[in-house]
UniProtKB/TrEMBL annotation:
Enzyme class at the top of the EC tree: hydrolase
Entry keyword set: ATP-binding, Helicase, Hydrolase, Nucleotide-binding, Nucleus, RNA-binding
Subunit details: Interacts with AGO1 and AGO2. Interacts with GABARAP. Interacts with NOL8; the interaction is RNA-dependent.
Domain of life: Eukaryota
Protein name: Probable ATP-dependent RNA helicase DDX47
Catalytic activity, EC: 3.6.4.13
Any one GO CC term of the record: cytosol
Recorded catalytic activity of this chain's protein: ATP + H2O = ADP + phosphate + H(+)
């Protein structure tokens, strides 16, 4: 969830030339044998792009600004040069890594430990939510590397007797855009004031926002810029967005987006058959040409739905993951994850319905208060922070009344369909059932085919 600030022009660091195409070994990058072995033991056969770009310049002693995301191998890109420098001049309280979240802090520490186990590196994680006393004791042992979230580290710098970072040789600011978006600016400033100016600094960020540029100017000296695309880079022409909304307004936001992007073909993913059916009814009640595709429909009905969609008689196809599998879904302009996928890999399948064969496409993922963790997993998998889809909240709120009425009708229709099914053991003609609202359903059963 990165802020979409623009890139400014001042104090542009020198750009590293693009790396050569052929895979290179860690040894080629200048990594010392013992650390090459550690990479090998972790199964890191060849360095990733960011490692190819950043490691040689970092080993030359330059400051680095790395535009790379989680999943790109960026932790190795800063950990290996730090460990190598530590081998050359062993020292306690040698490096500090600042990162925005506890989870990232532990992941980074695991990588330092894994890469540095054979050289006996000691790390400590200093994050909130953990008792400060045990952290003070850990700091008193003077680890080689501290991995910290800024708030708790400042707490220790101010309150833990005997602890200071006056001998620090390396500072890493990981996910700097997120650190700054989380309002850790003051803490970062405080930290910068109490560490030596004469140090090496690596700044990693997924996006180059104005705040990051400001930090770069304040904290880095003549840095080399290393920018890479991430490992799961989805096709370039796919614009992926999320919207973060309260779950009770999901329907209104859906209607808003369908209106905003009118004229496109949509595929909307729902998590259950029932919600697929309900949402299709709701949209029909609001005048959209929507058609459902789910597992409670026979294969023939599903194909029927699909054919209508393919023939462009319907512009919105609502589906569950299961129902859409194994079917030849045509290209769509916009994929909407109305219900977030519970398996993050399904996300890749879903958004793959658009931006095919060089065409462009959009995907919008609805994230409610209950979905944050799942969404973070998706971002981790694709190695990308998604931008928020721009919306006018007031306009969405103006829709709520009409949507509430359509919801009420949809619930009624769903109930009627259920009753009809039970009483006639009817295998449900979905299109027909949708027409119940119009009170003309009685005479429309003739179309049903096997
Ligand atoms: P990061 O972007 O640093 O969070 O790393 C993402 C994942 O990639 C981690 O699980 C690393 O262990 C792994 N990784 C980092 N470098 C390499 C590499 N050169 N080859 C294979 N996997 C790697």
């Amino acid at each position: 969830m990165a802020a979409g600030e623009e890139e400014g022009s001042a104090a542009e660091p020198e750009q590293e030339p693009a790396a050569e195409e052929q895979p290179r070994s860690f040894k080629d990058l200048g990594v010392t044998d013992v650390l090459c072995e550690a990479c090998d033991q972790l199964g890191w056969k060849v360095p990733t792009k960011i490692q190819i770009e950043a490691i040689p310049v970092a080993l030359q002693g330059r400051d680095v600004i790395g535009l790379a995301e989680t999943g790109s191998g960026k932790t190795g890109a800063f950990a290996l040069p730090i460990l190598q420098a530590l081998l050359e001049t062993p020292q306690r309280l040698f490096a500090l890594v600042l990162t925005p979240t506890r989870e990232l802090a532990f992941q980074i520490s695991e990588q330092f430990e894994a890469l540095g186990s054979s050289i006996g590196v000691q790390t400590t994680v200093i994050v909130g939510g953990i008792d400060t006393m045990s952290q003070s004791l850990a700091l008193a042992k003077k680890p080689h590397v501290i991995i910290a979230t800024p708030g708790r580290l400042v707490d220790h710098l101010e309150n833990t007797k005997g602890f200071n970072l006056r001998a620090l040789k390396f500072l890493v600011m990981d996910e700097a855009d997120r650190i700054l978006n989380m309002d850790f600016e003051t803490e970062v400033d405080k930290i910068l004031k109490v560490i030596p100016r004469d140090r090496k600094t690596f700044l990693f960020s997924a996006t180059m926002t104005k705040k990051v540029q400001k930090l770069q100017r304040a904290a880095l000296k003549n840095p080399v810029k290393c920018a890479v695309s991430s490992k799961y880079q989805t096709v370039e022409k796919l614009q992926q967005y999320y919207i973060f909304i309260p779950s009770k307004f999901k329907d209104s936001y859906l209607v808003y987006i369908l209106n905003e992007l009118a004229g496109n073909s949509f595929m909307i993913f729902c998590s259950t058959c029932n919600n697929t059916q309900r949402t299709a009814l709701l949209l029909r009640n609001l005048g959209f040409t929507a058609i459902p595709l789910h597992g409670q429909m026979s294969q023939n009905k599903r194909l029927g739905s699909l054919n209508k969609f393919k023939a462009k008689a319907r512009s919105i196809l609502l589906a569950t993951d299961v129902a859409s599998r194994g079917l030849d879904i045509p290209h769509v302009d916009v994929v909407i994850n109305f219900d977030i996928p519970t398996h993050s890999k399904d996300y890749i399948h879903r958004v793959g319905r658009t931006a095919r064969a060089g065409r462009s496409g959009k995907s919008i993922t609805f994230v409610t208060q209950y979905d944050v963790e799942l969404f973070q997993r998706i971002e981790h998998l694709i190695g990308k922070k998604l931008p928020a889809f721009p919306m006018q909240e007031e306009e969405v709120m103006m829709l709520t009344e009409r949507v509430a009425e359509a919801q009420r009708l949809a619930r009624m229709e769903l109930r009627e369909q259920g009753e009809k099914k039970r009483s006639r053991n009817d295998d449900d003609d979905t299109e027909e059932a949708i027409g119940v609202r119009n009170k003309v359903a009685g005479g429309k059963k003739k179309k049903r085919k096997a």
